[in-house]
Specification:
This protein folds into 4 domains: about 1-95, Serine Threonine Protein Phosphatase 5, Tetratricopeptide repeat, CATH 1.25.40.10; about 135-240, no CATH class; about 250-300, no CATH class; about 305-430, Serine Threonine Protein Phosphatase 5, Tetratricopeptide repeat (Alpha Horseshoe), CATH 1.25.40. The protein is elongated, with a radius of gyration of 34 Å. About 75% of the residues lie in helices and about 5% in strands. Helix 19 (about 400-415) packs antiparallel against helix 20 (about 415-430). By secondary structure, the chain is mainly α. It has helices at about 1-30, 35-45, 55-70, 75-90, 95-125, 130-155, 160-170, 175-190, 215-220, 240-250, 255-270, 275-285, 290-300, 305-320, 325-335, 340-355, 355-365, 370-395, 400-415, 415-430, and strands at about 195-200, 210, 225-235.
């Protein structure tokens, strides 16, 4: 009786194997005829037989299933099936892994190519900040790009760098929470961005193609499906990712969260210039001007050639009514960038800032004509000092309406009425 039972079991296994081979053959024939829906239907009917199948047959099953889904444009299901093939064969023979990997790579690269195109279009459009409609279209395109790169990661989670792409682009698409979530996911999974990148150019569309191993890249080049192979080594980017999280929190005005991440990042990179600037900006957003100034001055010691930093320190000093200190910082910015129109403009404004106490004293001496005239003469001397800086700013940027207004007022005060009229014409043209 025992022998009979064993024989029956053997016959059942043999029958299941035979039946499955027939189903796989039927699915292959359906795929050859581009009957993708029929192929999937046949395979789904055979799914109960998988339990008794060998790994090789299971891998073949999922490869065919992926092809059937792919032919119907069911990208998520196709990618899942191709990944299943790779998973099944990861520790054994690789009968179908290469084909599944190539199909998956083609699938995700198509999405990545579209995402790259959307990124290029979006970046070009958001540069036009003066055209709100064009800028808005650019932001939408960048959102599409980030969604595309995230989709690539979801379909092939070995391609972690695509999630980093998505995280980065979400920031410029103004989807700040999406960016934060993606960066935190990367950090939580231990991703650092470090490692070796294998890149080549697709012969089909001349777009970059990325591979998980050098062998995959070399195989594609040998098959003349790719060209110009390149191997790149990337350093860890954990601190840079945290900096991007900070920028997102700043954009969301979640300043406490931003400071928390800054402190975490500074433990790994003490004295980091970018983190100091970010910290300064957070304090500025919180209205803590003294801390803002303190952090900027720390940063400028690290990078004294940053003209924008000198300019920002000047702005801070002006806010604190330290006009001489502000002028000194603006001049340092101009030394580094001689055509810095905003710095010239702000020197003029800082000089005029010195007239504020004079004007207050003039208002207290309206009936003391001698004293009033003395004070007014002192005021006009400051106007004369400020005038060449505003003129220099105007020479660099003739469309700066605040500079034009300042010159109109100075020329009138100094009784230079012809010049004041010229500025009035320009003002009417650009207002």
């Amino acid at each position: 009786m025992k022998k009979t039972f064993l024989l029956l079991v053997a016959m059942m296994i043999s029958f299941a194997s035979f039946s499955q081979k027939e189903e796989l053959k039927a699915a292959e024939n359906a795929l050859k005829a581009n009957n993708f829906k029929d192929a999937v239907s046949v395979l789904k009917n055979a799914e109960p037989l998988l339990a008794a199948a060998k790994d090789k047959q299971k891998a073949q099953y999922y490869l065919l299933l992926g092809k059937g889904y792919n032919g119907q444009g069911m990208i998520n299901d196709a990618a899942s099936a191709f990944n299943k093939v790779i998973e099944i064969e990861k520790n054994g023979s690789k009968s179908y892994t290469d084909e599944a990997g190539n199909l998956l790579n083609t699938l995700v690269q198509n999405i990545a190519t579209k995402a790259s195109s959307a990124y290029e279009e979006g970046i070009a459009k958001i540069k036009d900040v003066n055209d709100k409609d064009t800028y808005a279209v650019g932001v939408i395109k960048l959102g599409e790009s980030a969604d595309g790169f995230k989709k690539v990661y979801e379909l092939s989670q070995r391609d972690t760098a695509f999630l980093q792409n998505a995280a980065y682009i979400y920031y410029f698409a103004e989807k700040y929470n999406n960016s934060i979530d993606a960066y935190k996911k990367l950090i939580d999974m231990g991703y650092t961005g470090a490692g070796t990148t294998y890149e080549a150019i697709s012969v089909l569309n001349d777009q970059p193609v990325y591979f998980n191993t050098k062998k995959e890249m070399d195989d594609q080049v040998k098959m003349k499906l790719a060209k110009n192979p390149k191997v790149s080594v990337k350093e860890p980017q954990t601190v840079e990712m945290k900096k991007m999280i900070v920028k997102n929190y700043i954009a969301l005005k979640q300043n406490d969260d931003a400071l928390k991440i800054i402190k975490e990042a500074q433990q790994a990179a003490p004295g980091d210039y970018g983190l100091l600037v970010d910290e300064a900006n957070v304090y500025y957003a919180m209205g803590d001007n003294l801390k803002f100034k303190e952090k900027l001055e720390e940063a400028v010691k690290i990078n004294p050639s940053d003209y924008v930093l000198h300019y920002n320190i000047g702005v801070m000093k002006s806010d604190l009514k330290d006009y001489d200190g502000a002028i000194e910082s603006y001049n340092k910015a101009i030394e580094l960038k001689p055509d810095y129109a905003d710095a010239y403009n702000n020197i003029g404004a800082a000089i005029l800032g010195k007239t504020i106490p004079i004007v207050e004293e003039m208002n207290q001496n309206l009936n003391n004509f001698k004293k009033y005239d003395e004070l007014q003469a002192k005021q006009l001397e400051f106007y004369k000092q400020a005038m060449p800086y505003y003129e220099k700013a105007f020479g660099i940027d003739k469309n700066n309406i605040s500079v034009v207004q300042a010159l109109m007022g100075i020329y009138n005060q100094l009784e230079m009425y012809d010049k004041a009229k010229e500025m009035k014409v320009i003002y009417e043209q650009i207002k």
